[in-house]
Amino acid sequence: MDALSEFFDRIQMTGRLFYAGTVFDTLDINKPDGTAFIHIVERGGLDLVRRGHPSIALDGPTVLLCPSTCRYKLEPNRDEGAEIICATFEFGVSMARSFPLGVTDTLVFPLLDGDALLPVINALLAEYRGKDAGHRKGLGVLFEYVLIVLVRRALSEGMIAKGGLSAIVDPQLGKAINAIHLSPEQDWNLRQLAELACMSRTKFSAQFLKVVGVSPIAYLTAWRMKLARDLMKQGVKLKIVAASVGYGSQAALSRAFTQEMGLPPGEWLKRQG
Q1: Considering the entire predicted model, what is its pTM?
Q2: 10-residue block means of pLDDT along the chain (273 residues)?
Q3: Are 70 and 111 in contact (CB under 8 A)?
Q4: CA–CA separation, 184 vs 224, rounded Å?
Q5: Domains defined along the chain, listed by start
Q6: Rounded-to-integer distance, Cα 20 and Cα 159, Å
Q7: Radius of gyration of the chain (CA)
């Protein structure tokens, strides 16, 4: 089972074009919780400026992966500015709180000659400039692929050592997390999840909290709420939503939803427009 693919399939975190063009002035990025950005520097030069960190010069083709926890500025360092294209990925405030991805600072990926991402970046830029029928969907697919490759590289190179993404590919914790992803409707308890990870309950709880940043049951609840929100947006009746995500009744789902989101399901759905 490819747990990382399963996660991306279920979280539905589609990339959307945020900005494209030539940057001559400073971009001050202050993102809302529950989002991540990808910046692709095609040509020109920029300085990545973050408070408390030395500036990083970005010269030549470069990709940045920026989580919602990082505030930063992009400052052109050449008179001709810099050509960039940016995408945003939204995965929800609740998931950001209960499923910290483990990316706490901007990750920088220079694109050297022969890099496997270069043809994809070129296809993405061509898709943007062509604006043919279906180009919005095409851009979204390409942005998503770029995100997956960046996450894969970051995990393999040790740039992501904690958080949910690290736990997904962990040989033990990943088994429990993937079981939650595949069967959120099951009445999971700590003992069952620990057995899947081949660990004692005490060791499993401590390791899960250390790596992911939240308890196993808190993660289970957050995942169920994320799926419930997706189903509600699709117009699925609340009674069916409750059964699909592991709650015995509509009332039980409403209580859990209100506690997690701060609003009853109906009120939350109205505010989504």
Answers
A1: 0.77
A2: 75 79 82 76 86 84 79 84 86 54 78 85 89 87 90 85 83 92 93 96 95 90 89 92 94 92 90 79
A3: no
A4: 6
A5: 3-156 (2.60.120.10), 170-271 (1.10.10.60)
A6: 27
A7: 20
